[in-house]
Amino acid sequence: MARLAFQGDPRIEISRLDAPLPRHRPNYTVETVLRLKSTLALNDELFCLLGADSWLTIGAWYRASDLLTACGFIVGARPGFELTRATAALPQGFSVREGTSDSPDATLLWLGDSTGKRSPVYLLTDLAEDVSATEVRAALGRQPNANSNEVLDPAVAGYIHEHGLYSSDV
């Protein structure tokens, strides 16, 4: 689906690094980030991009503490998303301090753990798009053909419909 969504943009390269693993083994984000990080130069920066709805569950993710210090994060907040909710989502043992962002559209937080590891989190405070992947998948599960072309690339929507993905009767 990623190839279909970005097939016309030569600036985007699709990676299989996060592809499903053999024998139905879960593919945890922390493991993907660590694999990717091992291929980068020491001074390269790596960021995990996610929506505010996913960020609010980050403390419950597999090896959340390791993930939060393995890379930086860019969190697409929705209108009305409060900074206090972003910090409350963290696992126990993390400290948070506000930093200075170069962008007026982002709030910078520095996360620190008990070992002194730090990582940046950029909160994009006012994204105009009020849509999340979680909501799109849930809507497709309830009503597979309902308005998917409004938020999805038509080629991706066609693929989802053709293969019966996210439908509740699968």
Protein model, in words:
- The chain has 170 residues and is α/β, with parallel strands linked by helices.
- The chain folds into two domains: 2-124, no CATH class; 133-163, no CATH class.
- Helices cover 32% and strands 16% of the residues.
- It contains eight helices and five strands.
- A five-stranded mixed β-sheet has the order 1-2-5-4-3.
- A hairpin with a 5-residue loop joins strand 4 and strand 5.
- Helix 2 packs parallel to helix 4 (64-70).
- The longest helix has 10 residues, at 133-142.
Quick structural summary:
The protein is of the alpha/beta class and 170 residues long. It has helices at 2-6, 29-37, 52-55, 64-70, 83-88, 133-142, 148-151, 154-163, and strands at residues 47-51, 72-76, 95-98, 106-112, 118-124.
Q: Secondary structure elements and their pairing?
A:
Elements: H1 2-6, H2 29-37, E1 47-51, H3 52-55, H4 64-70, E2 72-76, H5 83-88, E3 95-98, E4 106-112, E5 118-124, H6 133-142, H7 148-151, H8 154-163
Parallel strand pairs: 1-2, 2-5
Antiparallel strand pairs: 3-4, 4-5
Helix pairs in contact: 2-4
Radius of gyration from the alpha-carbon trace, in angstroms: 18 Å
Number of domains: 2
Count of helical stretches: 8
Q: Give the neighbour order of strands across the main sheet.
A: 1-2-5-4-3
- Largest beta-sheet details: 5 strands, mixed
Report the order of strands and helices: HHEHHEHEEEHHH
**How much of the polypeptide forms β-strand, as a percent range?**
15-25%
| Overall 3D form | globular
**Structural class, from helix and strand content?**
alpha/beta
Tell me the helix content: 25-40%
How far apart, in Å, are the first and last alpha carbons? 19 Å
Number of E-type strands: 5
Query: Uncertain runs with pLDDT below 50, 5 residues or more?
Result: none
Q: What does the average pLDDT come to?
A: 84
